[in-house]
């Protein structure tokens, strides 16, 4: 019998993998991939709660769709930023992107 | 006895987690992007198991379709040097591993301690109509705001990626 805790464990595992990718990667595009993994993990949790605790409503799915919308906007703007930085600096290594620091 | 949905759950969970690990651990960023598509497809399968068919379709269209294509394009446009070592770790990967593992332990412990009283009533046959009613009824204003957000993001992405004159 698969319970809610199984789905939450999958979501938590996916979130931690994404967090590691977002924190430990050097390439800015790989950081964006890690963030996408984390957002997917959150969506799994939302849909699982919706399915197990309030199956007569669709609130969790509505929230998941809004998360997907915001994630799509975020990845479009983020990749445009990466492209623009690469065009000026010929580099997408986030260890070098520190010229806003003083 | 192991029923079919439990078997499917374990299969999909294993595929999703293994593909996510491959995204993070592989050193070639093109392989990472391809495994990202597999992860998104696995998550879509989990949505189908959770009887969220509309969300599974949205996931496949937007994530496995649009977002993956965007990421592959960005990889191709910013490729430089050796592709075999294009996805390395930065200086603080040890701290990142410690933080991620600690968070994982906390989540697993808290998750095992929590016993949800799930009472799965039979879900409606199709929840697309319920989602449509919610979007155009109770959540109409967030729906419109999301549309404005997408428009702003589109204009901003075009403006940023187009570049323009380098020095002004």
TrEMBL record, chain A:
It is found in: Cell membrane; Membrane. The chain crosses the membrane at residues 6-24, 31-54, 60-83. Keywords: Cell membrane, Membrane, NAD, Oxidoreductase, Quinone, Translocase, Transmembrane, Transmembrane helix, Transport. Coiled coil: none annotated. It catalyses: a quinone + NADH + 5 H(+)(in) = a quinol + NAD(+) + 4 H(+)(out). GO terms for cellular component: NADH dehydrogenase complex; plasma membrane. HAMAP family: NDH1_NuoK (MF_01456). This is NADH-quinone oxidoreductase subunit K. It comes from Neomoorella thermoacetica (Clostridium thermoaceticum).
Automatic annotation (TrEMBL), chain B:
It comes from the Bacteria. InterPro entries: NADH_UbQ/plastoQ_OxRdtase_su6, Nuo/plastoQ_OxRdtase_6_NuoJ. It is found in: Cell membrane. Keywords: Cell membrane, Membrane, NAD, Oxidoreductase, Quinone, Transmembrane, Transmembrane helix. Coiled coil: none annotated. The keyword Cell membrane applies. GO terms for molecular function: NADH dehydrogenase (ubiquinone) activity; oxidoreductase activity; quinone binding. The chain crosses the membrane at residues 6-26, 33-50, 56-77, 89-110, 139-161. GO terms for cellular component: plasma membrane. Its EC number is 7.1.1.-. It is an enzyme of class 7 (translocase). It is a multi-pass membrane protein. It catalyses: a quinone + NADH + 5 H(+)(in) = a quinol + NAD(+) + 4 H(+)(out). Its main location: membrane. Belongs to the complex I subunit 6 family. NDH-1 shuttles electrons from NADH, via FMN and iron-sulfur (Fe-S) centers, to quinones in the respiratory chain. Couples the redox reaction to proton translocation (for every two electrons transferred, four hydrogen ions are translocated across the cytoplasmic membrane), and thus conserves the redox energy in a proton gradient. PANTHER family: NADH-UBIQUINONE OXIDOREDUCTASE CHAIN 6. This is NADH-quinone oxidoreductase subunit J. The gene is nuoJ.
